[in-house]
Specification:
11 strands; Alpha-Beta Plaits; Aminopeptidase; seven-stranded mixed beta sheet; alpha+beta; 234 residues; single chain; four-stranded mixed beta sheet; globular
Amino acid sequence: MIPFLGLFDPFPPVETASDEMGGLLAVGGDFGPARLLDAYQHGIFPWGTVEGHPLWYSPHPRMVLFPDEFRLTRSLKKTLRTKRFEVRFDTNFAGVMAACAETRRPGQDGTWISPDMLNAYIRLHELGWAHSVETYVEGDLSGGLYGLAIGRMFYGESMFSRRSDASKIAFAHLIRYLTANQFGMIDCQMRTEHLASLGGREISRPTFLARLSALTVASSPRTAWSAENLNLNW
């Protein structure tokens, strides 16, 4: 049985997550900042709702990407050097989330980003925990991604692209920022071929949790991110 959480119930041990159900751990609780931060620091994340109740996951194995293993392809490097794209950090978090929610994806019927989740992550952004990387072409938002930063750990949530390579451009800039600020790992949650092509790989839950514990020791919110002083010589 998957446990149902009341508003003040703690999460069950992540080892009890159902591997047969993609790592589903619990149902219920809320999307408050305290609940979300507690979840992420223990290797748990929300993925959709059922009848308005959050679904909480902790999959095994876990897809991650170590910043120093990012694969920058020749074609993407060439695109980065054209300077056709403008990249900004934390200037349109709500717009990035909304675009991710609107993007249709293979094998998904609708979006898992509910209005309650949208509002919850906007609140985390206001508190300094959630961040966005945005790609613009001639002033139009063309791609981007968002996620959470706790300590030296980044939790990738979703990305979107309205133009070829727009999300990859944002991801490349994210890697530069994380590397410059000594982040140790990106949580990619579930395996996809797209993430694997960028250098992501799967690790076991125990390995993930051990690394997570070390990286989130200094866990205080950061101010708005900026591309200023980044090495952008591709």
